């Protein structure tokens, strides 16, 4: 698995399993299957309501803790300093972990700057290996960054071939923040698997449109956390590190971008 080195030296897998909308026993099954296939990054959130199930599966999976990378996120009920401190403990308990690898503020709440010192304190205490934000557009990220003592290690945002967010990516790189895509397949809002450009280019490498879409992002240094409940798709998504797109192919895929969010609420 290819890794990204965060600004504090912590390694994060370039690709992981997103667990949004996975619930109960199905969530545990998916995490266990992903572990068997070689996944080591698992992305959850308090908002998803499945931290306990993710933790259960990780404990059952038998993979040494040092090989795992677990991300979760605080949401609106934790929108104050005191509640963020409580939220950190709640996530540690639900995940059944002594530390969390990456904790994010889930959305650009008005209280985000009040929440973040709780994350910074837990980071310095070793309860969190890295901290950051999610769904912060360029202007909100810049304002937030200026108020931090620990620069966000990651900004997890909507990003895909139709909305690659190059200006945001460059702004993050300039400040040593990694960009991670939570919607590399557009969450079903576009027929990305049938996109002719992706299918044609993928065929040249013996790859699918989905693999080509992921490769476009990772080749630009963007981490990806595609969600799937199907074992064969998990395996397919992992197989994006054994080929490389040419500059011309990257440019062709880049023409798919229209600069518009498919979700609308965090546009740059």
Walkthrough of the structure:
- There is one protein chain.
- The chain has 268 residues and is of the alpha/beta class.
- Helix content is 40%, strand content 13%.
- The protein has ten helices and ten strands.
- The chain has helices at residues 24-37, 51-61, 81-95, 112-124, 138-146, 166-174, 196-204, 209-218, 231-238, 247-254; strands at residues 3-5, 11-13, 17-18, 41-43, 69-74, 102-105, 131-134, 154-157, 178-181, 223-224.
- The strands form two sheets. The chain has an eight-stranded parallel beta sheet, with helices on one face. Strands 1-2 form a two-stranded antiparallel ribbon.
- Helix 1 (24-37) crosses helix 2 and helix 3 (81-95) crosses helix 4 (112-124).
- It is globular and about 50 Å long.
- The two termini are 31 Å apart.
- 46% of the residues are buried.
